[in-house]
Amino acid sequence: MKGINMHIEYHQPESLDEIQDLRGQYLHTLVAPMDGMWESSIIAHATYWKIKYEGHIAGYFCIDSTNCLLQFYLTEAYQSFAQGIFPFILKKEGIKRAIVSTLEPFYLSLCLDFHRNLSIHSYLFRDSQMRELSFPQLKDTIFKQAKKEELEEVVRFYEENTEGNQDWIPPFVERLINQSQLFVLRDHQKILGTGECIISQKQKPYADLGMIVAKNYRKMGIGTYILIQLKNHCYNLGYKPICSCTFENIASKRAIEKAGFISHYRILNITF
């Protein structure tokens, strides 16, 4: 048992199945769908803790490998005790940072109650309007679903046009190709860009869109073109497109907005 007080205790569940219902309840408290890439790439690798208050399950929280708080949830019956539970866990775990979105009013409010500083981490977008823009520079290109025989080439494209650790790329690309959720934009034999349309399994009927443009072909409208094609694909399948980008990625933000998306919500960095 990691933390204990007169009323509060918390420990790691033996299996995430123990808090599956709590995680489902948390998703229903969101005021809009959460970015799926955030869920699959960050939250999925977090360490979870089950919270008990006076011996009863009250909620859960999770942290990443740097001890940054990523989620904090209490059931409605225990939210009135949040002003005691939240700072207790921050102190016991030595948590100095949190990442929270404006989609999470309860968690966000607690972070604001105890915060010292905050900054914008990412923008969260939803579609606002259909766009039928002209892209004469792309008239000779082909936008299509990636095939299994293109796997090595697409993996190489990702590696050449993304930054940071790249261990995630081969399994990620292979999974999306197998699920028919990855697209390529080609000019003859050359890949100019890729698009992702990832169907959410937890937040239906939403789909997360993403795109990568070859470094030598950026600032030419290709990102916006790919997003518009992905939007049309989403609507044809009966899904609603959402997407996101980091605060620093100004080029992606502009491409997303030109494709008809708007951002009402943010992901924030919080320090305590």
Gyration radius, to the nearest Å? 21 Å
CATH superfamily of the largest domain: Gcn5-related N-acetyltransferase (GNAT)
> Low-confidence parts, pLDDT < 50 over ≥5 residues?
none
CATH architecture of the largest domain: 3-Layer(aba) Sandwich
Please bin the fraction of helical residues. Answer: 25-40%
Query: What oligomeric assembly is this protein in?
Result: single chain
The count of helical stretches stands at 8
What is the beta-strand fraction? 25-35%
User: Which shape, going by the Cα principal axes?
Assistant: elongated
Largest sheet: 8 strands, mixed
Which structural class should the secondary elements be placed in? alpha+beta
- Count of distinct strands: 13
Order of secondary-structure elements: EEHHEEEHEHEEHHEEEHEHE
Please tell me the total number of domains: 2
Strand line-up in the sheet with most strands: 6-13-7-12-11-10-9-8
Written overview of the protein:
The protein has 2 domains: 113 residues, Aminopeptidase; 141 residues, Gcn5-related N-acetyltransferase (GNAT) (Aminopeptidase, 3-Layer(aba) Sandwich), CATH 3.40.630.30. The protein contains 8 helices and 13 strands. The radius of gyration is 21 Å and the shape is elongated. A hairpin with a 2-residue loop joins β3 and β4. It starts with a strand and ends with a strand. The strands form 2 sheets. The protein has an 8-stranded mixed β-sheet with strand order 6-13-7-12-11-10-9-8, with helices on both faces. The model has no long low-confidence stretch (mean pLDDT 92). The protein has 272 residues and is α+β, with helices and mostly antiparallel strands. Pfam families: Acetyltransf_1, Acetyltransf_19. This is N-acetyltransferase domain-containing protein. One of its GO terms (molecular function) is acyltransferase activity, transferring groups other than amino-acyl groups. It comes from Thermoflavimicrobium daqui. InterPro entries: Acetyltransf_19, Acyl_CoA_acyltransferase, GNAT_dom.
